[in-house]
Amino acid sequence: MTINEKFDEIVLATTNRGKLHELRELLVGCSVRVRCLVEFGEIEDVKEVGSTFAENARQKAMHYSKILNCVVLADDSGLQVDALDGAPGIYSARFAGVEGANRDEANNQKLLRLLAEVPAGKRTARFCCCLCLARAGEVLVEVEGFVEGVIAEEGRGENGFGYDPIFYLPEKGKTIAQLPYEEKNAISHRGRALKKLVSAM
Questions:
Q1: Residue 111 to residues 23, 88, 119, 124, 163, Cα–Cα distance (Å)
Q2: Are 1 and 201 in contact (CB under 8 A)?
Q3: Active-site annotation, residues
Q4: Residues 6+ apart with CB under 8 A from 73
Q5: Is the CB of residue 128 less than 8 Å from the CB of residue 189?
Q6: Sheet containing 174-175: which strands, arranged edge to edge?
Q7: pLDDT tens track for 33-51
Q8: Which domain holds residue 187?
Q9: DSSP states of 120-172
Q10: For the chain, first and last CA: distance in Å?
Q11: Pairing state of beta strands 71-81 and 138-151?
Q12: What is the pLDDT of residues 151-186, one digit of tens each?
């Protein structure tokens, strides 16, 4: 049974424009109506206190699906750099402590500074995405997806958001931000997680 057959509507538990755009693109093949939190006005935020991506995704999905009494798809994702013992990890979005329009650039520059003396062969990293689908406070499906790569020495590309400009894919010879959206969605951590979620339905 597919998402189309089970649900008429899914609410994406994010206000991040980049994630929202990407998830909506990934769900284009489904006939469900895709909504987001901003359409519901003022909603009590959930505090992400989990120690893993999976725990945070579950907290968000359960919290918002209970408040809205509907089906909610929550994502928690980020970057894990081997040379930094898995950092920034669950703190990826707030790594540099900067909010607003300059957040992504600040995060990228902090990461590049920390890796300035790290040789190319030791700059391995991965994007991780955990998705949780919940209905009225009850978890339905949980999945995760990964994509392996290397942290580049400088940012390249305009497509994408977050750490995409400095996440280099050796097999593509490009950063994720240099890929067309369709190609990115086909291999991204979020795209891989969503494929698993659809299969699990």
A1: 26, 8, 14, 13, 9
A2: yes
A3: 76
A4: 10, 11, 12, 13, 23, 61, 131, 132, 133, 197
A5: yes
A6: 33-36, 9-12, 71-81, 124-135, 138-151, 167-169, 174-175
A7: 888 888 887 887 887 788 9
A8: 3-200
A9: GGG-EEEEEEEEEEEETTEEEEEEEEEEEEEE-SS---SSS-TTGGGEEETTT
A10: 6
A11: unpaired
A12: 999 999 998 889 999 999 999 999 999 999 888 888
Amino acid present at 115: L
Q: What is the pLDDT of residue 82?
A: 97
- Give the sign of the dihedral formed by CA 2, CA 3, CA 4, CA 7: positive
Residue 41, classed as helix, strand or coil, is coil
Q: What is the pLDDT of residues 117-142, one digit of tens each?
A: 999 899 999 999 999 999 999 999 99
* Matching residue, tokens 């689908």: 133
pLDDT digits (tens, 9 = 90+) for 53-71: 999 999 999 999 999 999 9
pLDDT tens digit sequence for 141-150? 999 999 999 9
Q: Cβ–Cβ contacts within 10 Å for residue 68, how many?
A: 16
Q: What is the CATH number of the domain that holds 56?
A: 3.90.950.10
Domain count, the chain: 1
